[in-house]
Design brief:
Elements lengths: L6 E2 L2 E11 L4 E6 L12 E5 L5 E12 L2 E6 L5 H4 L6 E5 L13 H4 L3 E4 L4 E9 L6 E6 L4 E5 L5 E4 L4 E4 L12
Parallel strand pairs: 8-13
Antiparallel strand pairs: 1-2, 2-3, 2-7, 3-6, 4-5, 4-7, 5-6, 8-9, 9-10, 10-11, 12-13
């Protein structure tokens, strides 16, 4: 499942600012997206600090720096000027996420969906999505306080984003799993 994992209101986190790099005001950048090429076309970004404060900053450049990436914001020209942004996340409007193929969803679109059976019995809500090589797993917080892991397999689940739900086929024992 493509990563654009953090969804805040109408924004999605696509990167995290790391420590300053060099003397020119650059910082290392940890992408939180499967589409790092998106940084090449960004002109500005909403930067949310660890304390929740938000600032819009222009982007001078983003470049590969060895196995990492580096970002240079406009008008931030020293390590001391970029240091306060360490740990901040770069947010873009949710409407600017890269389009995905049909029947493919971002984690933020799945997390929080109501989970119900084909008969309409409400089971709980999707609390998280775990990525695994074979297929992702939906972590469902059940109404009774327990958890269930549901494989993200088309034969077992149907995603109804418009209806805000994930519909699970009735498979004996599937929703009875306990985790933890």
């Amino acid at each position: 499942m493509p990563r654009d994992p953090v969804h805040r209101e109408q924004y999605v986190a696509i990167g995290r600012v790391l420590k300053p790099r060099g003397l020119g005001g650059e910082a290392f950048l940890h992408p939180l997206t499967d589409f790092p090429e998106r940084f090449q076309v960004l002109k500005s970004v909403l930067v949310e600090g660890p304390d929740g404060t938000r600032t819009t900053l222009g982007i001078d450049r983003v470049r590969n720096c060895g196995r990492r990436m580096a970002i240079k914001f406009l008008d931030i020209d020293t390590p001391d000027a970029v240091a306060p942004f360490r740990g901040s996340e770069l947010l873009v409007p949710a409407g600017e996420v890269y389009p995905l193929p049909e029947d493919t969803f971002y984690v933020f679109q799945i997390a929080g969906l109501k989970v119900e059976t084909e008969e309409g019995l409400e089971v709980g809500r999707v609390a998280d999505v775990l990525s695994h090589p074979g297929n992702d797993l939906y972590v469902v917080k059940r109404e009774d306080g327990g958890e269930a892991l549901i494989p993200a397999v088309k034969d077992l689940v149907r995603i109804d984003l418009a209806g805000g739900r994930l519909v699970v086929k009735n498979v004996a024992g599937l929703l009875d799993q306990q985790t933890g």
